[in-house]
């Protein structure tokens, strides 16, 4: 009897161990190292600033009326510090120069009177050498300037470093975002070498999704933009408002080519592109996010455009 019970138990264990599910890989995160940073760092970013495939940690630490931008390696050792006398850094991005593959740190600086991009690159020699630039500032000019309780939240988010218009010079393309003052909101293009603002496509709503590809097959790229509608302004221009979700097409010179409302009410339009049907042309997909009882404009939640 005991022998039968033992055999039955072994048989049951063998059957239980058999899985009819496909095998999968599992991973375990193991602690490697930690380090303490004694400064308040509300903003941080990892980026490959050397171009060797390894990320450095970039921290924005408030100091007095300005910001200390600290660069740390993977061992937590400080490599460099950029001191900004006045203004708060509210966005950091690392972009690669496609002509010489140098890496550049872009950071948006808001000093309450203007918002602008600071740019830093390193030459990894002994001693370490650093190049700093400052792009053309955008001055504050809105109807909330005289309201002390309102903190101007304007920021610039660099997205692209490329010769977008074929003039042989690189441009930096950045999203411009702001809160209730809507100053600035839209899409900006700067000359990379001089830092001058080349054009500014203004919008009453914040663009939070951007594509740049040749979608119409003419050999030139177009910007396709999706917005986040907060409904915190009554202003409307360029056929847009802040009350609805839009898809917008802007050419390489900052001119509006097409806009279409995809959603009504508080909404967000997120974009992605892929040649899913293998016809040689990129397809645009829009993920439409809504809040409350707003309605789609006769479309599926993720339409192909």
Topology:
Blueprint: H1 2-17, E1 43-47, E2 56-63, E3 66-72, E4 78-84, E5 88-96, E6 103-110, E7 114-123, E8 129-134, E9 138-139, E10 155-162, E11 171-177, E12 186-191, E13 197-202, E14 206-213, E15 222-229, E16 244-250, E17 256-264, E18 267-274, E19 283-290
Antiparallel strand pairs: 1-2, 2-3, 3-4, 5-6, 6-7, 7-8, 7-9, 10-11, 11-12, 12-13, 14-15, 15-16, 15-18, 16-17, 18-19
Can you describe what's shown?
Helix content is 5%, strand content 45%. The protein starts with a helix and ends in a 15-residue tail after the last strand. The longest helix is centred in the N-terminal third of the chain and has 16 residues. The C terminus is likely disordered. The protein is mainly beta and 305 residues long. The chain contains 1 helix and 19 strands. β6 and β7 form a beta hairpin. The radius of gyration is 25 Å and the shape is globular. The strands form 4 sheets. Strands 14, 15, 16, 17, 18 and 19 form a 6-stranded antiparallel sheet that branches. Strands 5, 6, 7, 8 and 9 form a 5-stranded antiparallel sheet that branches. The protein has a 4-stranded antiparallel sheet with strand order 1-2-3-4, with no helix packed on it.
